[in-house]
Design goal:
Elements lengths: L5 E2 L5 E5 L2 H4 L7 H6 L16 H15 L3 E5 L2 H4 L8 H16 L3 E5 L7 H5 L8 H11 L1 H4 L5 E6 L1 H13 L14 H21 L4 E7 L3 E3 L4 H17 L6 E6 L3 E4 L2 E3 L18 H12 L7 E6 L6 H20 L4 E7 L17 E3 L6 E3 L1 H12 L1 E2 L5
Parallel strand pairs: 2-3, 2-12, 3-4, 4-5, 5-6, 6-8, 7-9, 8-11, 11-12
Antiparallel strand pairs: 1-15, 9-10, 13-14
Helix pairs in contact: 7-10, 9-10, 9-11, 12-13, 13-14
InterPro entries: GH (IPR017853), Glyco_hydro_1 (IPR001360)
Family: Belongs to the glycosyl hydrolase 1 family.
GO molecular function: beta-galactosidase activity; beta-glucosidase activity
Length: 401
């Protein structure tokens, strides 16, 4: 027996996501550029030219539109727009405006992310997110982005995965390198409060630019699953790492759900995946059902707020593209089931449009589109044709029982 495919809801976003630092190349004014060229870090290789998408974005958008996608989420680089404190680059603002216009010309609705993990070096040097006036400085940058987002941008994301920002800040304060075998390190509480304040300030600025822009942020959902008897332990573990950031989205126009795998929690805390579990190139457990659990949990936390959900990242790091298709089939079956159950889901954006710089290494291949590191030539994978083709049918497939 095969389930009947689920039609896309009206206005459903169907696309792929990227982040500026991971694909543009040569973001020399960012804090990450400094990290990549420092010793004593987990970073295996620097980003350098990355995919050269700073110059080759028209080709990237051409491919996405040709493949059948209708939406493209990309970020703009704060360190380019404000390379020195209080000094804004008109040329860079014009560059990102051309990207917005280029997307629209190709029939791609742009979702613009204002902050995707990187900050200007000057912002980091003065204390980063925990500096006294960080929210005001971020809001000033958002206001300066008006020429980019004021016209034709229906969705804006203020900050990508703020919970991971707080986690990484906690690591930095403790001098930790690398993540534990299971679960996430303890987030820095001061950074948590700071990024929430910055988000709320940014939401006000975006709405001042144009109240019609739908604004929100995205959360890295770890799909914490309690083993029998560990429900209270799981709730206590999850709240500072995830739920506090979901709850901060009350009053937003949408919230982004981003998930890749699961984390099981026992009486003593996180439990590594079994030795025989299939793992991806990031060493995460292969678990396509993660996105369904993440959607349902996020909806439950915000049940009284009515905030629409958008899957803003979901995918798999693998060199086996057939396995990538299998993962997407399983994930989309979960999305379809959530829609059947009445969840308000406004779109699905795969991670990632391109193989890219995964914060320290080019080895984890998440992309629907491969590229040559010598010539930068782009080659869509079979998974790109399969996933993009669903944008033409406007239906989510269901797996056979």
């Amino acid at each position: 027996m095969t389930h009947t495919p689920i039609p896309f809801p009206e206005g459903f976003l169907w696309g792929a996501s990227t982040a500026a630092h991971q694909i543009e190349g040569n973001n020399t004014n960012s804090d990450w550029w400094v990290k990549e060229h420092s010793t004593g870090t987990h970073i295996q290789e620097p980003s350098l030219d990355a995919c050269d998408s700073y110059h080759r974005w028209p080709k990237d958008m051409d491919l996405l539109a040709e493949l059948g996608f209708t939406d493209y989420r990309f970020s703009i680089e704060w360190a380019r727009i404000e390379p020195a404190e209080g000094r804004f680059s008109r040329a860079e603002l014009a560059h990102y405006r051309r990207m917005v216009e280029g997307a629209i010309e190709r029939g791609l609705r742009p979702m613009v992310t204002l902050h995707h993990f990187t900050v200007p070096q000057w912002f980091e040097a003065r204390g980063g997110w925990t500096a006294e006036d960080s929210a005001e400085l971020f809001a000033r940058y958002v206001a300066a982005c008006a020429p980019v987002i004021a016209d034709g941008v229906p969705y804006v994301c203020t900050i990508n995965e703020p919970n991971m920002i707080a986690v990484m800040a906690g690591q930095a304060k403790r001098g930790d390198i690398g993540f534990p075998p299971a679960g996430l390190p303890t987030p820095d509480d001061e950074t948590t409060h700071a990024v929430i304040a910055a988000h709320h300030a940014a939401v006000k600025e975006v709405r001042a630019i144009d109240p019609a822009i739908r604004v929100g942020w995205t959360v890295a959902n770890q799909v914490y699953q309690a083993l029998p008897g560990a429900e209270e332990v799981t709730a206590a573990y999850r709240h500072p790492r995830e739920d506090v950031f979901i709850e901060a989205a009350r009053g937003d126009d949408w919230i982004g759900v981003q998930s890749y795998t699961r984390t099981r929690i026992g009486a003593e805390g996180p439990i590594p995946a079994p030795d025989d579990a299939e793992r991806t190139l990031t060493q995460w457990e292969y678990y396509p059902a993660a996105v369904g659990h993440a959607l349902r949990h996020t909806a439950a936390v915000l049940a009284d707020a009515g905030v629409p959900l958008i899957v803003t990242e979901n995918g798999i790091a693998t060199d086996d593209d057939a396995r990538r298709v299998d993962y997407y089939k399983g994930a989309l079956d979960e999305v379809a089931a959530c829609l059947e159950d009445g969840l308000n889901i406004g779109g699905y954006l795969a991670w990632s449009a391109l193989d890219n710089y995964e914060w320290g290494s080019y080895a984890p291949a998440f992309g629907l589109i491969a590229w040559d590191r010598e010539t930068f030539a782009r080659t869509p994978k079979p998974s790109a044709h399969w996933l993009g083709g669903l944008g033409r049918t406007r239906e989510l497939p269901r797996l056979a029982d």
